[in-house]
Model the fold of this input.
Amino acid sequence: MCGRGFHKWEDEPRKQFDVKQGRLISEEVCKRCGKRRTRRS
Ligand SMILES: [Zn+2]
Done:
């Protein structure tokens, strides 16, 4: 699944603040492969 781009995203409790955009960014981690991505809320 992960190989085809279907990651099992789970919210990382740690939130970051993007200073440039002045927004909160939430981070997500794939439960299966550990890949990370950030999302702007
Ligand atoms: Zn994955």
